[in-house]
Amino acid sequence: MAAYRADDDYDYLFKVVLIGDSGVGKSNLLSRFTRNEFSLESKSTIGVEFATRSIHVDDKIVKAQIWDTAGQERYRAITSAYYRGAVGALLVYDVTRHVTFENVERWLKELRDHTDSNIVIMFVGNKADLRHLRAVSTEDAKAFAERENTFFMETSALESMNVENAFTEVLSQIYRVVSRKALDIGDDPAALPKGQTINVGSKDDVSAVKKVGCCSN
After folding, report:
1. What string of H, E and C letters represents the secondary structure of 50-107?
2. Which Gene Ontology BP terms does the record give (predicted)?
3. Of 92, 156, 186, 215, which sits most exposed with the smallest number of CB within 10 A?
4. Rounded to an integer, what distance in angstroms lies between the CA atom of residue 42 and that of residue 60?
5. pLDDT in tens, 138-194
6. How far is it, in rounded angstroms, from Cα 14 to Cα 207?
């Protein structure tokens, strides 16, 4: 069950990035998940912004730091910093604009070029509420996700359809990856020192685990 938590009340902190063309609804997905808000008049994101939200995964509190940036080419200079430390990603396209689906292959390549191979990726077809305008079939999107070994979900930020599920699935899968790695080396993740970096792979990772019961300000 997902739940809102105080900012400093968490066991794990995971960085998740939103990527995809401009106008596919990344910012509304972020605001729907973190604040349960939607804006019909939302404007293109300028630069980078992020928001946080915590959920329960098993008996742990997992906090997501979710980064959102503009999809326009002129912001590509921030690429390396934007991806650094990400252990999860939502790759978003607009089901009513086929060109945004055509571009996901490029976005996926960029993501994989700048992150570790173990990053958890959710392929998201947003604006699924606009059924009469659909230009990308669910079957085509599923086939792409299966071929690229990513998760897949269609969402509607407007109707709040599958938004919670998409983010929760990503965070749950990241937690499982981290837990498996800890078991492989014989460590208890909850017993690691507060703030220790968790490396899903060889790349720099800002995602961290917080020691259970440790409080500091």
Report:
1. EEEEEEEECCEEEEEEEEEECCCHHHHHHHHHHHCCEEEEEEEEECCCHHHHHCHHHH
2. protein transport
3. 186
4. 34
5. 999 999 999 999 999 999 999 999 999 999 999 999 999 998 887 765 554 444 333
6. 5
Q: How far apart (Å, rounded) are the C-alpha atoms in residues 27 and 49?
A: 9
- What is the fold, at CATH topology level, of the domain defined by 12-209? Rossmann fold (3.40.50)
CA gap 89, 86 in Å, rounded: 7
Whether the CB-CB separation of 86 and 69 falls below 8 Å is answered with no
The 3-class secondary structure across 9-46, one letter per residue, is: CCCEEEEEEEECCCCCCHHHHHHHHHHCCCCCCCCCCC
DSSP 122: E
Q: For residues 3 and 103, what is the distance between their CA atoms, to the nearest angstrom?
A: 34
What is the CA angle 69-144-104, rounded to 5? Answer: 25
Residues 15-71: tens digit of each pLDDT: 999 999 989 999 999 999 999 999 877 665 555 677 999 999 999 999 999 999 755
| Structure token digits, residue 142 | 């599923």
